[in-house]
Amino acid sequence: MSSHPAVVERLAKLQVDQRRAATAPPGPVLCVAPAGSGKTTTLVARIAWLVDEGAAPETICAITFNKRAAVEMTESILKDKKKILPCAAYLEGEYGVNGLYVGVPCKLGARGLEQVIEITLTAEERIALQKSAAAVQDLIDVLGI
After folding, report:
1. What does the pLDDT look like over 30-71, one tens digit per residue?
2. For the chain, what are the domain ranges?
3. CATH code for 67-140?
């Protein structure tokens, strides 16, 4: 069992099958389940567990998306459509966030992510984004990466 209290707590909140996936032996894990079933929660718990077990964070690759989104993003890049799509982008001051990957609208074209699009957010939306970025930062701090 993991030793870091935050990891133990995170794993304890999972269902049995989710916990099995999160603590499977190191290596690739494919989780296929319906929307809203907790795949992302399980993925985050797995990353925390792997790091807690000694895996180097830079050796972990986690990908989550659906086929339709993947096709749309790929077409925008390969066909240079310059389409604005939600993507995880490394923010350097956009939306008041620095040094974190956060899901925001981005222009995708032949050069990949060509531009982070800053839209005007309501006060409520800005608070939600800041809360999300703070949660990502908290997890980074807990994991020591």
Report:
1. 888 887 888 888 988 999 999 899 888 767 767 676 777 888
2. 5-63, 67-140
3. 3.90.110.10
Give which of 62, 13, 9, 67 is closest to 38, Cα–Cα: 13
- Residues with Cβ within 8 Å of 37's Cβ and at least 6 positions away in sequence, in order, are none
Cα(53)–Cα(61) distance, integer angstroms: 16
Q: What is the pLDDT of residues 2-32, one digit of tens each?
A: 578 889 999 999 999 999 999 999 888 888 8
Q: How far apart are CA 78 and CA 38, in angstroms?
A: 32
Cα–Cα distance, 17 to 42 (Å, whole number): 10
